[in-house]
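question for whoever is on the cluster today: can someone run the full assembly for these? two chains, 636 residues total. i dont have access anymore since they changed the login thing
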Amino acid sequence: MKQKKKSFSAVIGISVLLLFVILLENISALIPGLPQVFQPTSPLFTVLKKAAVYSLVAVSMNLLNGFTGLFSLGQAGFMLLGAYTYAILMVPADQKEQVYYLFGGCAFDSSLMDVLGKLFGTSGAGGAVSMILSCLIALILAGCVAGVFAYLIGIPVLRLKSDYLAIATLGFAEILRAIFQWQKLGKVTNGANMIKGFPTFSSFNITNSSGQIVLRLSTFVPFLIVSLCIVLIVLLINSSYGRAFKSVRDDEVAAEAMGINLFRHKMLSFVISSFFAGVGGALFAMYVANAQAKAFTSVMTYEILLIVVIGGIGSVSGSVLATFLYVACSEWWLRFLDSEQYIGGFKVPLLRNGFRMVIFSIVIMVIVLFFSQGIMGSNEINIGALLNRFKKKERKQ
Amino acid sequence: MSENVLQVDNLQVRYGGIEAVRGISFNVKAGEIVTLIGANGAGKSSTLRAISGLVRPGGGSIIFEGEDISGKNPTHIVSKGLMMVPEGRKIFPNLTVLENLKIGAYLRKDELEEDIAKVYEYFPRLKERSWQEGGTLSGGEQQMLAVGRALMGRPKLLMMDEPSLGLAPIVVQGIFEIIKQINSAGTTVLLIEQNANMALHVAHRAYVIENGKISMEGTGAELLNDEKVRAAYLGSTNK
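^ ran it for u. tokens below:
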């Protein structure tokens, strides 16, 4: 009963959030003369899109590092697999010549979208259906490819413990990056060049016949997909499997003595985490509108690890919260530190290119010093409890 | 009542080149409390770890309810109804008391409510703390939780590795009371103890392990009155 009420309010909360995102995106068209922040070109939307994508990857990493206690640093590698799977499947046939010009065309003639286009048509509502369906299939396949690779690499490396596992997975990600840049695979991966031309988030904006945007959905789409994935992860964590993951994290010997098969559960967590990292990678490719192996460095993994640590290892809502704060700081709020600023005639000292990173690092250090468990520790944001506390305070007054 | 639930024959356990258990044989009959007593390093815990599948035995056989389970994986052994309360309690510190209990029944897919109620009946203290994280409990409560967690698996044979370790005498007494209750409710118990005095008082039969071998066996009362046991384990001598 209590559980039902809880999940009901969660569904309501997420729907409200998604509606709010649609409204926010389109508000500048509804009410003219709003400040720059609400215009479609504003950094606000860049931050929202990127943070949505990153929060999925952060939560997937948290599932592995925070809930199962496996210290893996392969996230960027699995993102790369997802991004490339999506990109290779989705470059439309008429774009292939141009994208793969260095290699004289692509190994595959048509894309997923072209195949579905034959079924549903390529323009109007049929075109929309074939694009949405093919995107969904490609996203799921992106996750599956990452999951399959995770399974294969998991067989040897999941026998390793802590630091050794981290090194092995990090190495795996680096090897993948090198392989995908290999010129001999150019017909598939486009070598060291980027793959582009596939549908991105802005392809989901609804336009009228003359090409004008009627309804913007380019921020809504990543929010929708990511919240769906995170809900799935949360359901998993709250299931008996999730409990088993946590018990493996807490005490391997005791978990084994309770009959929990350590290897099987570690593998399950690893594959599921990688699946969602793969979906996250595909979404990342949609966000930056290209797929390029160069982008998926270990620095990206560290960035996500940092987010997980700041948010609180073992807290899903912490990871999400931290992602939005982190991305907003690095992409938007601290940008002004990178250029010279004048207050009246006074030139503010120190501000120059790169100073943002100094401040950013200090902010992170302060957070780590004062919130040694991360922002949320291992707790979750509980709106019901917050409301209750608020009510109690009101009653006291 | 006289059927052998567990029959261990010539069990050997090696860690690298060290022989921890050198051919131990004993049996546990349905409805009994059997205890293995011995000093540190005698091979008690290694015997238990081999039975529960956590280490691979180097030789010998372990027959549980007619099936040789030596070298089988712990998942299989637990699913047959052989649960262990590990040494040093090893509860899951970041899971709540209730979650800890549920993990004990992980291999069972049926309803847990009845079993949870039963565990709470044995240990009312756990019910009060069901939402508390395991790591915040006191030592005695953690031991209760470890026993309760094992009971959640509906064991046919419950094995306990030094339940008295690091607990105050009064708490130990409570734990042993519960062990007796659990036993009289129908669960067979294999108890491993250094606290020979307590163990021999509750046990129907007992084995003494020395240097990886059984050196003596008998009923609890027999061993309690044995001169050598008194000298070595009960500390009532003038060496």
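summary bc i know u wont read the tokens: The interface with chain B takes residues 240, 243-244, 246-247, 249-251, 253-261, 314, 378 of chain A (CB under 8 Å). The mean pLDDT of chain A is 88.
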